[in-house]
Amino acid sequence: MTEKLSKNDSHLGAIDGLKGIGACIIAFFWHYQHFKPQNGSPLFSAFPMSYQYGAYMVELFFMLSGFGMMLGYSERIIGHGISFRDFIVKRLRKIYPPFIFFTLLTVILELAYYHRCGTTFVYGNLDIQHFVYNLLLMQDGFFGKEWSLDAPSWCISICMLCYLLFYLILYRVKNERHGCYVFFGAALLGTTINLSGVNYPIWNELVGRGIACFFIGAILCTVYRNRESFRYRRLGYICLAAVILSYLVLRFKPQFMGDLRMAFILGIAPALILAVLFIPWLGAVLGIRPLTYLGSLSIVIYLVHFPVQCAIRTIDEYAGLGLDYSTKAVWLSYTAAVLISALLYRLVIAKAAEKAVFGLFSKSSAAKSK
To answer: CA dihedral defined by 9, 14, 18, 20, rounded to 10 degrees?
Structure first.
């Protein structure tokens, strides 16, 4: 029998902490390569794994998104307590305004960089066609793998596809257990797409990675809800041991890992999430307020870090600063700029951006209520 969650369980701090850490690894380590550091990556000796394998935090992001959607919406969707329109609008209100804002900012910065250097910064396809794809949240995955504009935001478009499938599945099933059967099939389909090696619209690696991870995350939520049915703390420590062992293998004998992406999707990431959920002290560490706040900024950090990089390189080119991107000072300045920009968006710009994007919709709603 599924145990009922308390109100405090509806927003798990440790999950937010994981989101915050994942976003920072992507922004501050994995994508720091965009700068092409002249003499090696700063702090590489301290964070070699983040630089080498930070890309897999995107898989973790998808998985945590599936977990969060299942935790927050499954009962309402199965019980037909929320319409498809309301569900999608809620997701768009959270994602679309910052996405549009930073996409437009990226266009402006890229044009300035192109005027100075005669080429774009890192990613190409600075044209009307790909701009329209971005506006429709179909920039990557829907039409193949053509990076454009604020390219790291590609996961947003795949998330919207996963939200759509998630709602349609749960709306049609009788209960959560039946939903998990379908989720398992969806995760298997995503894995198949990922391993197929093809690059067609919708059927490509990006979509496969997103679907597999998202629905594995949804299944993990059901495991969490039923945790009292088994010795979940013991399982948590087993999962933690598996994560530590995987880290050691990857650190010292990576050739024994096999397909690392599939190992991460099917084993390492689920084990990490369950360890955080089932081990009280680990959940408490990751649930501290600074990390949970980082988690609440995770989407903004994903979206803002590339425009910040583009701005730094553009200023560097115009001012002739000759910045050494291998130095700790430049790295620290960049990380501070990303965090400050994310905070400024959240505190100063977010409401105005949402009003600008959804203002017409809000006015029509107000008129109907009268």
So the answer is: 90
Distance CA 318, CA 303 (A): 24
Nearest to 297 by CA among 350, 260, 334, 258: 350
Residue 121 CA neighbour count, 13 Å, CB half? 30
- The DSSP output letter for 2 is P
- Per-residue pLDDT reduced to its tens digit, 185-230: 999 999 999 898 888 888 889 999 999 999 999 999 999 999 999 8
Residue 231, both tokens = 């010795």
Cβ(36)–Cβ(121) under 8 Å?
A: no
Helix (H, G, I), strand (E, B) or coil at 204: strand
> Rg (Cα) of the chain, in Å, rounded?
21
Q: Sign of the C-alpha dihedral, residues 229, 234, 237, 242?
A: negative
pLDDT of residue 202: 85
Quote the CA–CA distance of 332 and 179 in Å, as a whole number.
45
Q: Is residue 275 a contact partner of residue 282, using CB atoms and an 8 Å limit?
A: yes
DSSP 8-state code for residue 330: H
- Give the residue ranges of the chain where pLDDT is below 50: 1-11, 364-370
